[in-house]
Amino acid sequence: MDQRTNAFQLKYNDYKQTLEELQAKIIELGHDKDEHDVVLTTLRDVEDSRKCYRMVGGALVETDVKSTVPVLDTKRKNLDEAISKMKAELIKTAQEFEKWKKDNKIQVVKQ
């Protein structure tokens, strides 16, 4: 019986850790998306030929606004897609977790 309890505890901990990691990553990507939105909003009111800088793989690269805005737009859209996929995965995992708890009659005991 003790091995079975240990197995359930390990599975429970795995589910909780997975859910927490997904939530943390969604929050992190949301902050990145917000930063992209702020930069894009700022650059929309600036003339296209103005110099700007952006980080590419840890190096600061000089470009102009005209070439930077499409790159930032694409990155922001990719962040949106990634966040949506991760939210769907989070919901799916949470549903699996709830089903697993119900199927195995798991009751959480608070200390």
Can you describe this structure?
Belongs to the prefoldin subunit beta family. By secondary structure, the protein is mainly alpha-helical. It contains two helices and two strands. Strands 1-2 form a two-stranded antiparallel ribbon. The relative contact order is 0.14.
- The average pLDDT value, as a whole number, equals 93
Low-confidence stretches: none
Q: Compute the gyration radius: what is it?
A: 22 Å
Total strands: 2
What fraction strand?
Answer: 5-15%
SSE run:
HEEH
Major sheet size, sense and barrel closure = 2 strands, antiparallel
- Strands in their spatial order, largest beta sheet: 1-2
Oligomeric state, counting identical vs distinct chains: single chain
Gap between N and C termini: 22 Å
| Helix/strand structural class | mainly alpha
Provide a count of the helices: 2
Overall geometric form = rod-shaped
Into which percent range does the helicity of residues fall?
over 70%
Pfam families: Prefoldin_2
Keywords: Chaperone, Coiled coil
Family: Belongs to the prefoldin subunit beta family.
Organism: Nakaseomyces bracarensis
Give me the secondary-structure topology:
Blueprint: H1 2-44, E1 51-56, E2 59-64, H2 65-103
Antiparallel strand pairs: 1-2
Family: Belongs to the prefoldin subunit beta family.
Pfam family, one: Prefoldin_2
Coiled coil: 5-32
